[in-house]
Amino acid sequence: MIRISVAARNAGVDAITALLDGGGTLEIRTGSQPATPAAADSGTLLAEIELESTAYGPAASGEAQLAGAPLSADAVAGGTAGHFRLKDAQGNPVVDGSVSESGGGGDLILDNTDINEGQKVNITEMPVSLPMSAE
What we know:
mainly beta; 11% helix; 1 helix
């Protein structure tokens, strides 16, 4: 089993979130997430949020929390949220993951995954973490 220190996990998470700060975006999409972040976008874009200059706080215990949550955006289309993508300021995918409502086990937590066009989409939680065992 590979293990890394908490300090190394924090440094890795901080490097990832630095790519998103100041011009990155969060996209909420229908369907399953692509095989890798490098794969083409899939599903219908339901909502998009431009991230602030400090979208995430500093990492602790290998995880960084979304600053200012809850965040919200107006839906640009209707459908069931299935995955999200975090992109840097150049539009390159950096992180993607699953979406659920509270208690559903998703990486991004919404107040409601059934979205109608024009509806306010509310994000309650979306940490970025490195899933390796620490010391």
